[in-house]
Structure formats: structure tokens, C-alpha cells
Amino acid sequence: MKTFLLLLLISSANLFSQKLLTPANVKIDAKLIKDEISEATWYADNAGTKIEIGSITTELKKLNKTDLLIKTTVKMKQAPDTKWTDSTIVKTANFEPVYHSSFNMMRDVVLRSGKTKVTGYYFDKKAQKKDKIEIPAADYFDSSSYPVIIRFSPLKENYTADLSIFDYNPDAKKGLLKAYITEMKKTDLNGKKVWAVKTTDDIQDKTTTVTYYIDPETRKILKQDMELGGRKMTLETIQ
């Protein structure tokens, strides 16, 4: 009886344990990945009224047979001359990170991903302080790439998973963290059948959730609903 109960406990733990996705085991359909540029309008919710606050342009570009560039450019409506540009290079086959940079008016970040550590720098423009980055890390995704990973991964009802990610934010957390796919289901968006994929992560202690609405055929993100500590925002892709 004791042996039976022990086996039952082990099998139950395996049944309910959450799968941790890494570049070593992720399933990416690389045939779906094509060069593209898309633009989304960024809205904030103000007592039920949508207020346009900016736009985000996302570019996917195959640099060669193995590497993929993911580039996002943010423009704020009230400051049209200032830009926030993030560039991430990953391996197309499994999204293993190679390089990440993020430049805006407040700070610059550059990260280079090795097999056992991440190196680079963080430059605070206001304080004029530059910090060297050297943090042990292995088998992870760059935090900026996991929405794209979801696009090109198998989509199925009620699927959940954890993703191993790396992020560097002096005001939040640094190093290896997790992102979470908490819900995946089919739904309707403007009369079209789409996948709704709800996510959160450890960067802000799971206080932020993002739901991606993905076209099942093109795998493009048509809309994003964001909840940030009580605030609601939306990104709507321009068709």
C-alpha cells in the first residue's frame, strides 16, 4: 500500500507540474516566420474611454539562415520626436538569445548572451552612471522575445506553460526569471475566430497581465489587452 501511494504521489506530481519552456525544448514552427513590419496604435483606458497615447512598430527580419531580428520602435503622441527602440537577435529555430539592446531618453541597455552568462552594460542618462553587467545564466529566452515565441508555437485549448527568461531592470529584477502562459483559448475578435493567450511574468511580480489575440492563419497579433496594477491599456494592430 505504501508503495502504491508513493507511486500515485509521484505520478500526480508529474501530471500537474508545469512545463518549463527553454530553447532546448521549445517547439517553433519556423516556416511560419516571415519578414514583416506591423504597426499598432497604443491606447490607455480612461473611465471607459480610449485615449490614444502612441504607436508601436514591430519588425521581424531574417538576418541570415540562422538569425532573426525582432525590432520594436515606440513613439509617444505627446513627444513625437523621441523614440524608444528595442532590438533583439535570436536563433530562428529555437529563439536562443544572441543580443539585446534598448535605447530611450532615460537609459541605454546592451546585453550579449553567452552559453553561461549575460554580459553588457546599463547606462543611466540622468545620473550619468554606467553599470557593467555580468550575470550567470543558461538555457533561457530574452524577456522581449517571448510574445513572438507564443505566435509561432503550437496553439491549443487550455494550454499553460512557464518560460525561462532573462531580464535586466535595476528598478525591478535582474537575471533569470519566469514568464507564464496562464490561459489559452479560442474566442471571437471583431467577428473573427482567434486565439486569446493570457500571460504574466516575474518582472513586476505578476502584477501585469497581457492577453494576445492571435490570428490562427497568419499568426499575427491583432490586439493586446494589458492590465498594469489597475491600469488598462490596449494595442490594436493597424490592418
TrEMBL record:
Keywords: Signal
Signal sequence annotation: 1-17
Record's protein name: Uncharacterized protein
Organism: Chryseobacterium kwangjuense
